# Entry
Amino acid sequence: MKAKTKISALQLYMMLFLSRAIAGVTLNAGSVGGENFLENIFSSLLHCAVLCVFALPLFSLNRTHPDLSLPAVAELRMGAAGTVISALYAVFFLVSNAFALSLFITLLFNTMDPIASRFSVALALLAIAVYGAVKGIETVSRAAICVTALFLLGLTVICIALLPNVRPEYTKPVFQNGTEQFWRGAIVFAARSSSLAEFAVLMPFAAENTKGKFALWNISIPVFLGILLFFTVSCLGEYAYLQIFPIYTLSSIAEIAGVQRLDALFIGLCLMALVVRLAVGFFAISESCARFVRKTESRALLLGGAALLTLMLSLWVTADYERFREIFRAEFLLILTAVFGAVLPCFLWIVDRAGRGGGLR
Amino acid sequence: MEGISPRLNENREYICGQFKNAVDFMKRDLRLGAHEAVLFGIDGLINKQLVTICVLSPLLREEIREQDSESAMAKIQDSVLGAVDQAILHTMRDVIDRMMNGFAVLFLDGCAYALAFGTQGFEKRGVSEPESEVMQRGSREGFVETFMTNVSLVRRRLRTTALKFEKVTLGEESRTPAAVCYLEGTADPEILEELKKRLARCNLQNLLAAGYLTGYLERPAVFDSVGVTERPDTLCGKLHEGRIGILIDGTPTALYVPYLFVENFQTIDDYANRPFYAALIRWLKYAAFFLAIFLPGLYVGVAAHNPELLPHTLLLKVAYAEMQTPFPVVVEAILLYFMYELMREAGLRVPKPLSSSVSIVGGLVIGETAVSAGLVSAPSLVVIAMTVTTGYVVPKLYEQMAVLRLVFIAVGGIWGVWGVLMGLTFLLFSICGKSSFRVPFFAPVAPFRLFGMRDVAVRVGWKRLARRNDPVQTMPGAGKEEKRF
# Structure
């Protein structure tokens, strides 16, 4: 329950960066609207502001209980009810992992490799993620540094390769046809981001003051998405809105010295980032159940079970595209992320203040 | 028998009993004045001429008038053999230890202790250039089998009183002398303590090579977290960085801890060459490491599962070559690789006059006949040849690369390119989760420290490198307990 292992704030935010970036690269017209992708840069900025607001109770709780994660605070303040909250957090991370895996499987099988075995790819990805999570947060966070470096380097290469394809005339003025795309994008960003919940669980593992780097991390995502969306719009034009995964299509038109298939590089980088995201999710599950599983062996067993459930859920969901759309629709995910990223932290903050007799002031 | 008895007969019987049937055991009975005495030694370990001139001759020439045994022994110790290196021994264990180390040991009747004289004189190899760590600009001296020579080789390079050598004895049976060496004030006392603890846990009967000990110092893993060097200058450099060395008698290699992943790519030549060239060579090594492990796996993955990733011209060439061969590309790659490893092993074990024949036959069979017979394709051969060549660029990682290469060929054959990338992520987790004596194995890359990159991403000039010495224990993330050691 008590966080003994400490990682640097940089390591923490690199994990969370990958977690959000991987969700960002799968945007399409079907999810955020087909008016103007550039408006989604502002959606991302709005999402940033929302994250800043809802991170405040988490920072406050972290200051009071620097060594306790949010589920641990719930158990401390609410006893048995707190245990239920911890279990709910574990379920949330499981669903979040299943969503991320399903999204990647859909990306992979709709673009690069339609004939590969869905089961074996998902199983291998989950096995590696569980291995990382069992080894601990230090392992995952260190690997996140390397993967982030590779991810950014790879995308920089793709962007450089795309420079000759940039057509500024493809870009359109923003908010020309209202703000629907903007709001839709904000909802999708918020729905697909499990960062606040992950932050709530992983915060006590950070060895230093995380506030400064939180701001840096929070702003890095709109910058990252802004660059990607600018290239998408200015290189693909209207074609971008017809694609299932426009950012993937963007990578597939990039060419360096005769090597045309940079989409393979893109998918490879996404795959590595996804493993880190899944490992973070599994670690968060183990932390949410830390009261019940203390030994490494039992943790491995718990995560093995969680991985199996994730696998089954992902395979079932991705077997039918309509089912995928229904189950993981933005409205449903938004409720989940809002509850676990904002409502429960605020509630626990109030309970904690009341429990300490400090009032709400 | 623990202590030394005042009765000479008992001591003599005990020592003779211990060395029963030992052809090299030497015993010389003496009469020194009114006292009976006996001198023991081991032939081959002692210098007989030295014993005759420096011990026996003065003993027999000097008239010992003291009636009391203790006084007679004191006289021998202070006057008769005062010039010889001596040690007073009180237990039989010490006596046998000294004899095994080339000392001559004198017992006197009525005296409850023995005197050991430093008369070592065994055959030893002279200091020569190490064969496995050849340098262009570094020193030509390498460690030898003799422990004290190795100690002097280090001492000669670090002439500071901060350099300490703490003696330890390892091996229940072999009683091998070893020294833990470090720079006081630079090495971390906690790491030193941890090292001593792990050495104390060593239950080896015989310590015949440095490699025997590494299993006691690290957790089993693919990558080593204990450094090995044959070069005293390398060890001195490591000691300067806060590492702790272990010199073992009878082995020409020194061990040192903590050992980090990036050290596999660092050689003493890097520091003698110009910085820009050293940086280039270092990046060449990183590239070679990746090629050596991933190239055959990626080739197999692309050729078998994702051929669309290849540029058109190359794809046609590979496809045409593969059409001519009977085996799938994954089997071809494994076969070629096995054949190469067989040739390599045979070349190593075969007597030297035959090694050239093995190379010629191997080269011809693999390189020429197999391709012309259509058993394997030329692109596969080129890939495997390139892979094994790049493997020699980082010789410290050869064993790991040899195994991982095979694993990645299999993974590439099963899952294609995605399998190789998943394998890379797994490898990354494995490296990132490892630590060596409480220092993260992948530091300063992960956990990241920009300052540490001056000797990892590049090799900055000596003026900047010498400005600040960051001992290894100050690496980011260092100092945490190692799990489940």
User: Anything to note?
Assistant: Chain B has a mean pLDDT of 88. Chain B has 17 helices and twelve strands. Residues 367 and 382 of chain B are 9 Å apart (CA to CA).
